[in-house]
Amino acid sequence: MDHFLYCADLVGIDHVAFGPDTLYGDHVALHRTFAHLLGLGRPGGPPYEPVEYVDGLENPTENFANICDWLVGRGFSDADIRAVLGGNIYRALAQVWV
User: Fold this and answer.
1) Chain centre to alpha carbon of residue 7
2) Which of 9-13, 29-33, 51-55, 85-89 is the least confident region?
3) Is 11 exposed, middle or buried (0-12, 13-18, 19+ CB in 10 A)?
4) pLDDT tens digits, one per residue of 79-94
5) Which of 32, 24, 25, 36 shows the shortest CA–CA distance to 50?
6) How many other C-beta atoms lie within 10 A of the C-beta of residue 76?
7) Is residue 39 within 8 Å of 45, Cβ to Cβ?
8) Which residues contact 4 (CB under 8 A, 6 or more apart)?
9) Long-range contacts of 29-36 (CB under 8 A, 24+ apart)
10) CA–CA distance from 12 to each of 7, 17, 55, 73, 79 (Å)?
11) pTM of the complete model
């Protein structure tokens, strides 16, 4: 969630979203693949501390409820929550797939 806040502060809430990778899948293998491709943890590369899961997102069935609870608890508006839970993705795809 720290990374979400960083990105939202960097580019604005209308340009960030939680995607389907927060649902089901082998997140550990995905993260290891990206780490390898980005050279993370290699000598001379940026530091990389592998994690097995993200706290609060261990259970894919509960991920979006946990994310929504976190956003509500931190005072995000209903409009912002709708945006990051799918509205921003829908808007971007509608613009691209016209």
Assistant:
1) 10
2) 51-55
3) exposed
4) 999 999 999 999 999 9
5) 32
6) 17
7) yes
8) 16, 18, 84
9) none
10) 7, 11, 24, 19, 13
11) 0.68
Q: Taking the domains of the chain in order of start, what are their residue ranges?
A: 2-96
CB 1 within 8 A of CB 20: no
Contacts of 61-70 with CB under 8 Å at 24 or more apart are: 63/22, 63/23, 64/18, 64/22, 64/23, 67/1, 67/18, 67/22, 70/1
Residue recorded with tokens 């502060």: 9
Q: What is the 3-state secondary structure (H, E, C) of 26-71?
A: CHHHHHHHHHHHHCCCCCCCCCCCCCCCCCCCCCHHHHHHHHHHHH
Supply 19's token pair: 């995607």
